[in-house]
Design goal:
By secondary structure, the chain is an alpha+beta fold. It is built from 18 helices and 16 strands. This is TlpA disulfide reductase family protein.
Length: 477
């Protein structure tokens, strides 16, 4: 047996301590990313560059880089695709934990440093015309569509083209296997989102779609049932998982057993983290809709959920509904299009006795603007053409700083008949609505109390049904 001297033992112990400390620190950093900004533009007075991605709650998380905070760190990150936006452009980038990227703007383009050149080139080519992270849906053209078989073929052809393009590009350079896997996953989710958009945007019921169209959705079942894996959330992952579950129990949609059918299907069909996320999403979506035995489902979820952050989120969500604004929030100053200042308390008093559907947005926010086209149909269904005092007020709160762009967006989307205000996202009210990310939608009751903090978007049919239901209760008073 070989015995170490006292001095050698001390050296070994020091080495063990050093390695252990290094491993501990490295372990802490492996789930973090650092995003830095240099040479920022000046179109956004409050921030210059944005790096956004979808978090595990199915919400868009935005890192706002500004002059006094040009560097940000996010912990708990998993490999995912970030959408980097600057003044004139936005590009998707694939980023791994423990990476640092630097955003630079030059001549109407965005340059991201710190990532493999091969992977950056692939992302830029795949995202031509924003085809990687934005859906190819037909927008307002659904009413003119008569042959959904051709629509399905059109979506599938674009899907296959993107997959082939990814393979060709990745074969031509040394792209990481994890990169190829994640981007392929993003392309597939975009394709599924396209297919579902016929129902979610076009309002075409599943029973009116040809079997060949439904078969395209069915073929991707294996891609969806374990979609939430070791990778971070990608664009459309939240809605694809949720919509696929609805597709599987489509005969129950719109009926009393709708929630139970979706819950049971999630339990039976989906696996692991995907099942847990989906049931979290169902609880988050339906918690205000008087679901029978909702507390039983919630208790069941809390007892088995592996990710305790979901439980914390739901507890906070239930507390924030039925919420009365604080004095600081009520005293927040907003400005209307004429330049007149008004407090949030005065706006609530102005709308007392009505429901308020609040839309927090900005003229530079693409997802915000994309939702605007759904307001004509929504307002027609909820308040109609009546000139009398409607039971629901649509209140738009912008975080713009450029008044001309703000007003131009209102006029372009023909929203001048509604209430419009602008405020700072860093105000007490802005912090309450968490306006580091927009859009955000809420419903406020006749007494100025928040009854639904995270309300459905205008593009979701359930917001129409929900507002009509709440209006019917309001009409009884």
């Amino acid at each position: 047996m070989y015995l170490l001297s006292k001095k050698k033992w001390m050296n070994v112990c020091l080495l063990i301590l050093f390695v252990g400390k290094w491993y501990h620190v490295a372990g802490q950093q492996t789930d973090s990313i650092v995003v830095k900004s240099e040479n920022p533009g000046s179109a956004y007075p409050e921030f210059y560059h944005i790096a956004s991605f979808w978090d595990k709650y199915g919400e868009n998380y935005a890192m706002h880089l500004k002059e006094d905070q040009p560097k940000m760190t996010y912990r708990g990150f998993k490999p995912s695709i970030l959408l980097v936006a600057a003044v004139q452009a936005q590009i998707p980038v694939y980023i791994r934990p423990n990476q640092t990227i630097t955003i630079q703007e030059s001549r109407n383009t965005v340059v991201v440093k710190g990532l493999p050149a091969c992977e950056m080139e692939i992302m830029q080519k795949l995202n031509k015309n924003n085809r990687l992270v934005f859906r190819n849906s037909l927008g307002n053209e659904w009413n003119s569509v008569s042959d959904f078989e051709q629509v399905g073929i059109y979506f599938e052809n674009r899907y296959q083209e993107q997959l082939q393009r990814l393979q060709q590009l990745s074969d031509s350079c040394e792209a990481g296997k994890d990169f190829v896997f994640c981007v392929r996953k993003q392309i597939t989710q975009g394709y599924l989102a396209d297919l579902f958009s016929v129902v979610t945007e076009g309002k075409i019921p599943y029973e009116k779609l040809p079997e060949s169209y439904l078969a395209r959705i069915k073929r991707l079942r294996s891609e969806v049932i374990s979609m939430v894996d070791e990778y971070g959330f990608l664009h459309y992952q939240d809605q694809v998982v949720f919509n696929y579950n609805q597709f599987l129990c489509r005969e129950s949609l719109g009926k009393k057993e709708e929630f139970k059918a979706q819950w049971d299907t999630a339990q039976r069909v989906f696996k692991g983290k995907t099942r847990e996320f989906l049931q979290f999403r169902l609880l988050k979506t339906y918690h205000s809709q008087k679901v029978k035995n909702f507390d039983v489902y919630l208790t069941q979820f809390k007892n088995v959920a592996q990710d305790k952050d979901y439980i914390t989120y739901l507890d906070r969500l239930f507390q924030i509904n039925n919420y009365h604004f604080s004095p600081e929030e009520l005293n927040t100053t907003l400005t209307d299009p004429s330049g007149k200042q008004i407090s949030w308390k005065e706006i609530l008093v102005k709308n007392k006795g009505k429901l308020m559907y609040t839309d927090c947005w900005a003229s530079w926010c693409g997802p915000c603007r994309a939702e605007m086209k759904y307001y004509p149909a929504l307002t027609q269904a909820v308040i109609g053409d009546t000139e009398s005092d409607p039971l629901t007020a649509f209140v738009f709160v912008s975080i713009d700083h450029d008044k001309a762009k703000w007003l131009a967006a209102i006029n372009k989307h023909k929203l001048t008949n509604h209430q419009h205000y602008v405020m700072s996202r860093t105000s007490a009210l802005g912090k309450f609505f968490k306006l580091n990310t927009v859009p955000h939608y809420s419903i406020i009751d006749r007494d100025g109390k928040v009854i639904l903090y995270d309300a459905p978007r205008p593009s979701e049919k359930k917001i129409q049904d929900l507002l009509l239901l709440l209006q019917s209760d309001l009409a009884k008073y």
